[in-house]
Amino acid sequence: MSDTGLPAGASPLLHDVARVIARHLYRPAYRIRVHHADRVPPSGPVLLVANHMSLIEPQLIFGFVPRRPVFLVKQELFDTLGGVTGVLLRKLGQLPVRRGEPDRTPLLDAVRLLRSGGLVAVFPEGTRGSGNVEKAEHGAAWLVRASGARVVPVAARGTARPPGGRRRFRPTVDLLFGEPFTLDVPRGRDGLRSGTETVRTRLAATVAELDEWRAGAGGAAPGRSEAR
């Protein structure tokens, strides 16, 4: 990684242009509110962990996090359109990961980025779901153990239509950046399991905080917020 914060071969210019697009792409369809983006440390190794309900959250986080983010992206997306999408994603600085396979190459690449002071983003749930973070894979805790990165939980709500709900007109989407925390992940599988549970519970708590605030229907925002 160079001082751009991106993997070798990535285009900083293309990355920055894509982030501007991501900040504005969904504005016609959603009212977007961003809370506490200032909690993201401005420098040093940071691992963002976020909940996941749709394909929209990664794009919003990509656009609104105040640093250049490198995502671990499922290999299937790299393989679409005959591999053209993969070429674009690599130019944007994103890393492919094969789910369910013992391939540590992308994790080692992410560790190198973190140790160089970069910011890496992952979805610990491993797949899209309710976004309540009822389970988590071990990758996030492994990255923390290998890099010493600080962890920032990010909660997203509003991108998915409620079960049985009707199509909504310009629904409100919220992104809440939680308090950064450090995590000591002991060696061994037991240490990895305990570290994973800590990551899961901290992210779930951030999601619950956002849910509670949204249910309050107009109360004081959870920290400073900005509507987009």
UniProtKB/TrEMBL annotation:
Residues in Phospholipid/glycerol acyltransferase domain copies: 46-159
Example GO biological process: phosphatidic acid biosynthetic process
GO MF annotations in UniProt: 1-acylglycerol-3-phosphate O-acyltransferase activity
Keyword annotations: Acyltransferase, Transferase
Transmembrane segments: none
Pfam families per the UniProt record, alphabetical: Acyltransferase (PF01553)
PANTHER family found in the cross-reference section: 1-ACYL-SN-GLYCEROL-3-PHOSPHATE ACYLTRANSFERASE
Protein name: 1-acyl-sn-glycerol-3-phosphate acyltransferase
Protein source organism: Thermocrispum agreste
Species lineage: Bacteria, Bacillati, Actinomycetota, Actinomycetes, Pseudonocardiales
